[in-house]
Amino acid sequence: MAYFNNIKINGTNIYRPNGFTPQRQDVYAAEITTCTGKTIADLIGWKFANMTMQWDALPQDQLEVLLAMTGECTLEFTDADGVARTEAVVRTSAVTTATRFTRNGVPVWSNVQLEVMFLNAHNS
C-alpha cells in the first residue's frame, strides 16, 4: 500500500483522505484528584485520536464502502513513522456528500466527509 495514495477500510482500497495524519493521544488509568486539586493518573499507553476524514472527491464504489461501515471496522494505513497499522474504528457520523457528477463515465461524489473513533490502545 503506497503511503500517500491509499488507505483500506474493511480490506477495500480507498483514496487517502486529504491531510490524513492520525494524531496520537495518551491513555490514562487510575485517575485520582488529590486534596489540593491536583489530578494524578497512570499513563498506560496511547491511541490514535478521533478524527474527521475528508475527500475532495470519491468514486461511487469507494463511497459505498464508507456508507456500508457499521459497527467495528478495520482501517489500514501507513502512519507518519512509516509503520503499517491496522486499527479498529467505529464511524461516529453520517457520511456527508455535496454533489454527484460524472468523470469519464464514472459517478463521482465531491466533498465527502465522515468521522471515526479509534478503538485500539497501544502500550508501547
User: What's the story with the biggest beta sheet?
Assistant: 7 strands, antiparallel
> Percent range for helical residues?
under 10%
Structural category is: mainly beta
- How many discrete structural domains? 1
The helix-strand sequence is EEEEEHEEEE
Write down how many β-strands occur, each being a DSSP E stretch of 2 or more residues.
Answer: 9
CA radius of gyration: 18 Å
- General form: elongated
Q: Number of helix segments?
A: 1
- Please tell me the overall pLDDT: 91
Which percent range describes the beta-strand content?
over 45%
Task: Give start-end ranges of low-pLDDT stretches.
Answer: none
The termini sit apart by: 24 Å
Descriptive key words:
124 residues; mainly beta; 7-stranded antiparallel β-sheet; elongated
Question: In brief, what are we looking at here?
Answer:
With about 120 residues, this protein is mainly beta. About 5% of the residues lie in helices and about 55% in strands.
Q: Would you kindly provide a written description of the structure presented here, covering whatever features stand out?
A:
The protein is mainly beta and 124 residues long. The chain has one domain (6-118). 6% of the residues lie in helices and 56% in strands. The protein has 1 helix and 9 strands; from the N terminus they run E-E-E-E-E-H-E-E-E-E. A hairpin with a 2-residue loop joins strand 8 and strand 9. The chain is elongated. The mean pLDDT is 91.
